[in-house]
Design brief:
By secondary structure, the chain is of the alpha/beta class. It contains 13 helices and 12 strands. The strands form 3 sheets. Strands 2-8-7-6-5-3-4 form a 7-stranded mixed β-sheet, sandwiched between helices. A 3-stranded antiparallel β-sheet has the order 9-12-11, with helices on one face.
Length: 381
């Protein structure tokens, strides 16, 4: 290959660097304010013991094929039965990760005559699935129920004959705020549509027994929820909870389910234990709620910013390079904080995303915000 064959990529990377958007892999170090391991389960004794126990009883490390070949392991099926019962749904389907699950949902379930009405801030994986869907789609302003209703009504007036699919996150990953699920569920029912709720950052943290924020609306037939297993559950994978017929449709038509090697049976066994921990150890959620309350108070006291009220605290900075410098300054002092820049967030809204987990102690949270105030003041000089 000529040198010019790679030059195009070098130019594009240089362009990202000029905009302050270049990324590189940085090893985890210091106090954890960057992970989504909200309940501190990823390195917990119980999950480690569950994995070792599964190995001892002969559970395979790898699935060896797709679920439709020989990769359908009893651990997958046991997890799906237990998850459906735990979250109160008719059926569950286990995917390798939340990204794959969202792509499968949106590229497969909405039909060509339908419309997907999604919040402007939904995850990139949902956008990926929507772009592969045969259905039309429209973005609406964030957490605006009236905008969703107007979009559906405009579509109907223009001759839309299918069903609307309303797509939201219950707790938004970059802002830490909540969707108005009750009103959206009512709207979906009024229009004979579906409500798809990504519970990635609410699973394990909110709702009775950590069942998520959608627990408040139950699990009606027109509601589909996605519960990722790699955040508060401390493992990996994702569970789609839906009516049985929709799960069967995904098994038959979702290409990234049909043609992907199944998730590790060992990981399915680990997720089963994580669900038991949610039920057995409510004190983890209580302790996290206390840390979130402390973080909210310290954030307002030290830097004068209002908190999100959740375990995800965005610190809006605006400028890409400034966000990077502040994060680097905090990491140099032993706090693992990462900058979030476009295209993950909108232009001009670069930020620090501070994640509160059980992996830190209260005094560490207080010290973080004290140092953040100092670093931010230096940046303003």
């Amino acid at each position: 290959m000529s040198a010019g064959g790679l030059a195009v990529y070098e130019r594009k990377l240089a362009g990202l660097d000029r905009k302050g958007r270049s990324r590189s892999l940085v090893a985890a170090s210091g106090a954890d304010f960057a992970s989504n391991d909200y309940l501190g389960l990823a390195q917990s004794q119980r999950l480690g013991d569950a994995l070792r126990s599964a190995l001892d009883r002969g559970v395979a490390v790898g699935a060896g094929g797709s679920r439709l070949l020989r990769g359908n392991h009893p651990e997958h099926e046991a997890l799906e039965r237990e998850a459906a019962a735990y979250f109160g749904a008719a059926r569950a389907l286990y995917f390798a990760n939340g990204y794959a699950a969202n792509v499968a949902l949106f590229s497969t379930l909405p039909q060509h005559q339908d419309i997907i009405v999604h919040d402007a801030l939904i995850h990139a994986s949902a956008h990926e699935g929507i772009s592969a869907s045969r259905a039309a789609s429209i973005a609406t302003s964030h957490n605006d129920v009236n905008a969703v209703a107007d979009a559906i009504q405009s579509w109907r007036k223009a001759g839309g004959t299918g069903r609307p699919w309303i797509a939201v996150e219950s707790l938004y990953s970059m802002d830490g705020d909540r969707a108005p699920l009750g009103e959206l569920a009512e709207l979906a029912s009024q229009h004979d549509g579906f409500l798809v709720i990504d519970e990635a950052h609410a699973t394990g943290v909110f709702g009775k027994g950590g069942r998520g924020l959608a627990e408040q609306i139950g699990h009606p037939e027109n509601c589909i929820t996605l519960h990722t297993c790699g955040k508060a559950l401390g493992a990996s994978g994702a569970l789609v909870l839906a009516p049985a017929v929709l799960c069967d449709f995904l098994v038959n038509r979702a290409r990234n389910f049909i043609y992907s090697t199944a998730p590790s049976p060992l990981m399915a066994a680990t997720v089963r234990e994580a669900l038991r921990i949610l039920d057995d150890e409510p004190e983890r959620r209580d302790k996290l709620a206390g840390l979130v309350f402390l973080a909210n108070r310290e954030m307002e006291r030290t830097i004068g910013m209002r908190s999100s009220g959740s375990q995800i605290q965005p610190i809006l900075v605006g400028d890409n390079r400034r966000a990077v410098r502040i994060a680097e300054g905090l990491r140099a002092e032993g706090f693992d904080v990462r900058p979030i820049r476009p295209p993950t967030v909108a232009e001009g809204t670069a930020r620090l995303r501070i994640s509160i987990t059980l992996n830190v102690e209260p005094e560490t949270i207080s010290r973080l915000f004290e140092r953040l105030a100092v670093v931010m003041r230096k940046e303003q000089q």
